[in-house]
Amino acid sequence: MTEKLGFIPHSGTLNVKLTEGCPKLKNLLERAKAIEITPAKGFCRGRCFRACLMDKVECAIVIPEIADYPQDILEVIASINLREKLQLEDGDTVEVRILLE
């Protein structure tokens, strides 16, 4: 994963609920060039996009290739525990900037 993302992901993801109107973002990302994930056995395939969280932390957005996965959720991975680093609580507002190539 390091060669594709530039970092070793911390275990777990930060699930971000998109605000109204943002689910269209996932439709746009369907057509964008992504970093493909070929998972270890027992994990699902997915697509990644490099991103920046709160203009502070290099991260990536993961879109799992799972039927009926919620359109209003983004999974964010980083080399650190994002909740701890940014002192996030459930319901906090965060800004994610997706870096498309």
Outline the structure in words.
- The chain has 101 residues and is an alpha+beta fold.
- The protein has one domain (2-98): Beta Barrel (Elongation Factor Tu (Ef-tu), domain 3), CATH 2.40.30.
- 16% of the residues lie in helices and 31% in strands.
- It contains 3 helices and 6 strands; from the N terminus they run αβαββββαβ.
- The chain has helices at residues 2-5, 24-31, 82-85; strands at residues 14-17, 35-37, 46-53, 57-64, 73-77, 96-98.
- Strands 1, 2, 3, 4, 5 and 6 form a 6-stranded antiparallel β-sheet that branches.
- A hairpin with a 3-residue loop joins β3 (46-53) and β4.
- The radius of gyration is 13 Å and the shape is globular.
Helix and strand arrangement:
Layout: H1 2-5, E1 14-17, H2 24-31, E2 35-37, E3 46-53, E4 57-64, E5 73-77, H3 82-85, E6 96-98
Antiparallel strand pairs: 1-5, 2-3, 3-4, 3-6, 4-5
CATH topology: Elongation Factor Tu (Ef-tu), domain 3
Task: Find the structural class using helix and strand composition.
Answer: alpha+beta
How far is the N terminus from the C terminus?
A: 18 Å
H/E element sequence: HEHEEEEHE
Rg (CA only): 13 Å
Please name the fourth-level CATH homologous superfamily. Riboflavin kinase-like
What is the second-level CATH architecture? Beta Barrel
Helix content: 10-25%
User: Number of DSSP helices?
Assistant: 3
Taken from the alpha-carbon principal axes, the silhouette is globular
Give the assembly state of these chains. Answer: single chain
Q: How many structural units, i.e. domains?
A: 1
Query: How much of the polypeptide forms β-strand, as a percent range?
Result: 25-35%
Counting DSSP E segments of at least 2 residues, the number of strands comes to: 6
- Most strands sheet: 6 strands, antiparallel
Average of pLDDT: 87
**CATH C-level label:** Mainly Beta
